Amino acid sequence: MNIVPRQTDPSTIAQALQKGLVVVIPTDTVYGIAALARNQAAVERIYAIKQRPKSPDKPLAVLMPNDMQLIESWVVIPDEHRSFIQQHWPGDYTFVLPMKPERVGTLALQGATLGIRVPNHAELLQVLATVGEPVTATSVNRSGGESLHDMADIVALFQGAESAQALGTPDLLWDWGALPDKPVSHVIDLTGKKPRIIRL
């Protein structure tokens, strides 16, 4: 488990993700644990680290850069929801959208829809733009536990896990110290004509 400082070049974090590593990243809400979304082994490690059961009803969301052309190469954005999405990205909203038919099955442990968030975090957006494809991300905690804002708490969470579990820790932690105390993102399903709130 390697800890790198805030000043680390975003390209270094992007390269780690592209190599298949599991990385703890800062966001505009809480710390997240991330991996390349098409890397089955890395995504499965996130589930193992969080001790979260894999369920088709609760797939992990992805982060993407603020690039609508790239996003629309993965999902269909209904015209009736376009302005609403653009009002809230970048920001703390995850929108569930239908995947393009040709993309279904190309990401690990995803169905025919995809929850996407564009975070309001400049350095993380640089990472995502360099990666250029969906990055699976979820809050850093054990499943059912409290989301974490302070790197000191994250280090404490994982101490000893390497010896207890072969897949118990992430590979890299990007240390931004204590993040502002904010809630996790809102999640809204936009696959139908009317928005459906999943988490507010």
Task: Please tell me about this protein's structure.
The protein is α/β, with parallel strands linked by helices. It has seven helices and ten strands. It has a single domain, classed as DHBP synthase (Alpha-Beta Complex). The longest helix has 11 residues, at 40-50. The radius of gyration is 16 Å and the shape is globular.
The H-level CATH homologous superfamily, spelled out, is DHBP synthase
> Main β-sheet: number of strands, strand sense, barrel status?
10 strands, mixed
Secondary-structure class: alpha/beta
CATH class: Alpha Beta
Gyration radius (Cα, Å) is 16 Å
SSE topology string: EHEEHEHHEEHEHHEEE
Gap from first CA to last CA: 33 Å
Q: Total domains, how many? A: 1
Number of helical segments with 4 or more residues: 7
Tell me the number of strands.
Answer: 10
CATH architecture heading:
Alpha-Beta Complex
Describe the strand arrangement of the main beta sheet, using strand numbers.
1-8-2-3-7-4-6-5-9-10
Shape call: globular
